[in-house]
Fold each of these.
Amino acid sequence: MSEVPINRDLWRSLRQQIARRTRNPADAEDLLHSAYLRMVRYEAAHEVSNPAAFLVRTACNIEIDRYRHDKVVTDEGDAFQVEDSFPLQDEVIAARARLERVRAGLERLNPKTREIFLMSRLRNMKYSEIGKNFGISPSAVEKHVAKALLFLSEWTNGW
């Protein structure tokens, strides 16, 4: 066993040093105790010239090792908990069915309304640009788009 007399004042002082250096006052007592056990084992084969410094340094190293271990476990744990953002097969099938329903609805639209709607939604053209292409006002383009949206929402209702 260690030949160093450990009294309460020394123990308290070492615990405070460890708490300050590790910024972990809640675990300082446990770290000091673990460091003391390591020092006892180490002294069986080696001489410790400054037991107080040995205890503080060992306690800090234990805390560093614990932090690194927890970080690795957390990082690896997160890697195995990858969220699957892909839809389920039945959702894919339902989405494809809705898309086919929308395509069929687009075919039922007046060709001019369909073209205006597609220019607005797929090509992201402004109503004024579409109006110039068709020789109509932006307000008329807005009405065509609204007509197409109303028809398609009713056409796909329940799909």
Note: The domain at 89-155 is CATH 1.10.10.10 (Arc Repressor Mutant, subunit A).
Amino acid sequence: MIHHAKSDWDEPGASDFERSLSEKGRRDVKTLGSYLKLRGIRPDSIVSSCALRAQETADGLAELTGFEGRVQYLNELYFTPPETMLQVLLMQDDAHDSLFFIGHNPQLTALANLLSREHIGKIPSMGILALKFSVDTWEALETHRGAVDFMIFPKQFRYYMPQQIRATLDLA
């Protein structure tokens, strides 16, 4: 589960749906995308809200991780109840073992708490929560059964950033 990166609130006349990423948001996508690449994490599928800031987050992560498929942009992930988002998960293709699921808070955190064995306080902007399930099909997902594999977010890199990631940001 991935909360989209920080958006730009200074776009005159832009609706909430049309807000793009801020410069900080773009930098955070590069940082976390580079981290995922460094760890060898590449999704089999990417499903994202169709809001512009979520699309830009999805596209950036797809490029940085070497994802070669087609990103699915869904209206069903734009500020809808966690139960609706869960239905989207249950309908995923069983040929895909790993999924980047990109959405908005507070619904995304509520979905994480619905699926996880642990309580998640809040998935911050550009936060990535990796859950693992012991199931063979997406349809078999059950609530409160997911194990937290890891959770990362941009502030973790404020004081230390691996050289391999720093090099991708032109900060070296």
Note: Strands lie at 2-3, 45-49, 72-74, 99-103, 128-132, 147-152.
Amino acid sequence: MSKRKTLFHGTDKKSKKQITKHGIKLHVNRGNQDFGDGFYLTSNKGRAKARGDGSVLAYELNEQGLNIKMYRDISDEWENEIFEQRVNGNDISKEYDVVVGPIADAKIGYLIELLARGEITREDFRIAITQGKISEEVQVAIKTKKAVEHLTRKEEDER
């Protein structure tokens, strides 16, 4: 990501009103997120539109001065973070202001369940997710109030 990047948050009209009126609440999310609690954004406006009822909030993130964990691709560390969060509820990136990483296809949740039940090994998991479709877009987890302060609201787009 560059020093300033436009990112999108997909939601529904009710949540959009709440965010607009009261600001971003880092612990209000749908749970079971890849990088733990946070306000999630994507680099892909179309993916954001597909969430909720198509309401999209656009933000510019100024990365300067933020402690950012960047996963450039699938790695043991990326896989471990997602596994720890989704299976064990262990937010291992809580010391970061922002976590950025790839988005895997929808089968990752199913694979994590199989891994958690011991029905596949971590190696099986790794092979399966790397054979899946990995998008070039990223997910961005805003994890701290400091990072929220580095977001500037941009235009809105509703379906």
Note: The longest helix spans residues 76-88.
